[in-house]
User: What shape does this take?
Amino acid sequence: MNVRLMLAALAVSGVVAAQPASAEFVDNGNFANGTTAGWTLTGDTSFDTVSHVIAFPGDRNAPVGNEIQLATNDSTTEGQLKQTFATGPGTYAISFALQSEDALTALDHFTTKIDGVTISPLSVTGGTSAFDWTTYTFQFTETGSDTDLEFDITDGPSFFDLTDISVELPEPASWALTLAGLAALVLIRRRNATAA
Assistant: This one.
């Protein structure tokens, strides 16, 4: 048994296992500093404000901390919350928590866009009833060096509340690296066992 090879494989698998499960790409995704620092607000932002999370009575899914409340002057104007961040080619996971304080009119909407493309599973259209905090998640593939994340809204009579915005490398990538290190360990051990 070659002890040096075994120790090297163990060290490699330890380094791989010690890598963080994910890296966060979004700046100020939970508005912890009480501002929209890191974000660009465009269009009708007349009623956008950062505040402590508002939860409806009995809502057990409410996040803790700050949120941004997004609302436009009426249902015919649109506002945007945007951020561009460095990523690189690969697969990423986006998640955020969202609630609507009141029912949406037919013209109201909340749309999530990545690099200008609407992500339908992360969008809410008019005619929807008010809803408590809901966590939305989606995986997307980035081909460029930067990612443009954008939330477009119209919601004249009430607010969309948004927080815990996160874009990360998905967890399975970390596990795959760890398993590769462990597989290398097993192969080295088998090779040494057959050589003995």
Q: What stands out?
A: The chain is about 20% helix and 35% strand.
